[in-house]
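Quick question, first post here. What does this chain look like in 3D?
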Amino acid sequence: MKLKKGIEIEKGPDGYVLGGDVMEALEYDMLIPLSDEAVFLIQSIGQEEFDEDTLASLLCSEFGMDYTRAIEEALVLMNHWQDIGITRW
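> Answer (accepted):
Ran it through. Tokens below.
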């Protein structure tokens, strides 16, 4: 899996939100808030290919998560990213 090109993370008054040219105009009406973990992962992987193990390893090293929790969080994030259309195979 890879992130689509053109994804931008914007700092707003209430935290980070997802934007960029991959978002359709209507989606800007519903900016998608991002957790610190999601911001870190999106910035870390860039245009590289990744899987749940890649994300879990990054979460463990950056946030000191236990691997079991990190893999669960990675899977949730990957499913969410796929649902909102920012990933590609």
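Residues 25-30 have pLDDT under 50 and may be disordered.
The beta strands are 2-3, 7-12, 15-20, 32-34, 87-88.
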